[in-house]
Amino acid sequence: MRAIKTLFALAAFGLAAGGAQAADPVKIRVAWVAPVANWASILLEKKDLMQHHGKSYVMEPTRFQATPNMITALATNELEVANLAFSSFALAVENAGLNDLRIISDEFQDGYPDHYSNEFMVLKDGPIRKVTDLKGKIVAANAAGSGADIAQRIMLRKNGLEDKRDYTVVEIALPNMKAALLGKKIDLGTATLPFSYDPEYRNAARPLFVQRDAIGRSQFVFWQARSGFIAKNRAAMVDFMEDTLRVVRFFVDPKNHKEAVEIAARVTKLPPERFDAWLFTNKDFYRDPNMLPNLDALQANLDAQRELGFTKTKIDAKQLADLSIVQEAAKRIK
């Protein structure tokens, strides 16, 4: 009888072990908007550095037109990791009630000293010479409430101009901004990487102001996940962040610049010359090599957003941050 019990125990252990080994990897859908500018659009281009991919997790890049569209996906559990801008993060917490959203890493910062800042473009030969000239004009945003949209609204408000009263906002996808401005369908267009270095765009248009002028340094885009998903899948998330850090450090290392440019050209189907002079240099957004967000800058961004009436709730960035995952991941690959 004792022998039979032992056999049953061993069989049960074997089934449990086999079940654990056969368990499907955790699916991690990661959002992106702009190719190359957002890490999720190019992480799998260096899958050879992602040691845990296909084992403990599977990463699925998921494209959105703008960061506000990710909020619904988060709320309905159709997205695991978002890359919300500071503005849409505040809306997710305040309007969508996603109080369980946690800041888990940096993606890129705008306004960092000696680095790129989003540009707001007007035609070189057009009538707009200063911000106040936009009165009665058409201003484009990639989506209402996006980080760039909030920045330009703040800049226009600083110059006495209010939406609907003094100007009209239309939504245009980032890749289509150049055509809309050069076609004179809008008077002000958002230019962000990689689209802003398009030679045709720069030959015909110039920046009226940059985002730094409007809101200073910003933790512009960062990664978030819901606390329940983190708690349930923490081990897989650490593996994912370890792999992500390995790829990020590859791309920001100057010795890999040539390959990074080749990857960017392949992903966007643009010539390499369009990337060579700026990609992952100080002519690009600042990207922390440890993917640690600047929570002080983020807090200042959230406070400015609230002071100008775009949000009502006082949001504490540090209370909604969980950096333990990326910090643990960084320790593994030092």
Features:
39% helix, 334 residues, disordered N terminus, alpha/beta, two-stranded parallel sheet, D-Maltodextrin-Binding Protein, domain 2, 2 domains, 3-stranded antiparallel beta sheet, 9 strands
How would you spell out the order of helices and strands?
A: HEEHHEEEHEHEHEHEHHHHHH
Instruction: Please state the overall shape, judged from the principal axes of the Cα atoms.
Output: globular
Based on the coordinates given, report the CATH architecture of the largest domain: 3-Layer(aba) Sandwich
Assembly of the depicted chains = single chain
Strand order of the largest sheet: 7-4-8
- Average pLDDT taken over every residue: 91
Q: Percentage of helical residues?
A: 25-40%
- Reading off the top of the CATH hierarchy, the class of the largest domain is best stated as Alpha Beta
- Mind describing the biggest β-sheet? 3 strands, antiparallel
Number of strands: 9
CATH fourth-tier homologous superfamily of the largest domain:
Periplasmic binding protein-like II
Round the Cα radius of gyration to an integer and report it. 22 Å
Tally of discrete structural domains: 2
Brief write-up:
The chain is an alpha/beta fold and 334 residues long. 39% of the residues lie in helices and 16% in strands.
Q: Layout of helices and strands, plus pairs?
A:
Layout: H1 2-22, E1 26-32, E2 57-63, H2 69-75, H3 86-94, E3 101-110, E4 119-123, E5 138-141, H4 147-158, E6 168-171, H5 177-182, E7 189-191, H6 199-204, E8 205-210, H7 211-215, E9 218-226, H8 227-232, H9 234-252, H10 257-268, H11 273-276, H12 295-307, H13 324-332
Parallel strand pairs: 1-2, 5-6
Antiparallel strand pairs: 3-9, 4-7, 4-8
Helix pairs in contact: 9-13
